[in-house]
Amino acid sequence: MDNEQAPVVIIGIGSIEQHGPHLPLGMDSLAARYFIHEIASKSNSVCVHPCWPGYSPHHMKFRGTITFSEDTLLNVILDTISSLADHGIKRFMLTNHHGGNAEIYKLAMRMAKRYYNVMVSSPTGPSGTELAKKQADISKRHWDVHSGINETAAALVMFPELVEMYRLEGWKPTLDLGTELNKFFDVDRDDYEIVSQVRGACTPPVNIDFTKDGIYGTGDPNLADAGEYAKRLKERVDFMVEFIRVWKTIPIPPAFLD
């Protein structure tokens, strides 16, 4: 890689937690590491993976999970950015691969920008491609947000040697929120926008109370399509690389100059 005088630093955050019977405990952090390395290698950037655990107290009933407290994760992210800001880095791209980190991650971005005088971004996309729409539809239709079709496909692309599909033989969904709330998963309901949010408000805080095997949703992970996901992954990496290219054409705004 050619020397870069003012590199973008890409920080990836994930988790160590159960991912059903077939995916590795480090699924989210392994995916974060893979993703940021792909972007960095194509954009002359620097990638940093400051920690393996994330914020996962809702997974602790499943053995093997390791969670940071909210304060610990927040400070790991902030200390990482602060250290590199001291060395003159002005552009940080953050990418989060675990839903439980989301609020802490967003707060860290806001605090870093305010207190360390750096630019912080977390771009997402592309969202309008056919593959993006299909992936989003699977997530919505099957509540496929953890260890299901999409995440299994991702693992089969990025680290297939760690996936044990044989453990899914005869798999049936274990998702159960109770008779009334189970009805609120029907995406074809006229009132789905309301009832899906009511369902979210009523979902137990500990996931073993609604999924006995740790797989959220009703989509069969055996339907994961690695070839299709590989194309989607390339779309996402290319999008991030282009974001960095455009970002670096903009001189550092005066507000961020020391």
What does this protein structure show overall?
The chain is α/β, with parallel strands linked by helices and 258 residues long. It has two domains: 9-127 and 234-256, Creatininase (Rossmann fold), CATH 3.40.50.10310; 130-230, no CATH class. It has helices spanning 27-43, 70-86, 102-116, 130-142, 149-158, 179-182, 192-202, 226-247, and strands spanning 9-13, 46-48, 91-96, 119-121. The chain has a four-stranded parallel β-sheet with strand order 2-1-3-4, with helices on both faces. Strand 3, helix 3 and strand 4 (119-121) form a beta-alpha-beta unit. Helix 1 packs across helix 8, helix 2 packs parallel to helix 3 (102-116) and helix 5 (149-158) crosses helix 8. The protein is globular. The model has no long low-confidence stretch (mean pLDDT 96).
Quick gist of this model?
By secondary structure, this protein is an alpha/beta fold. Helix 1 packs across helix 8.
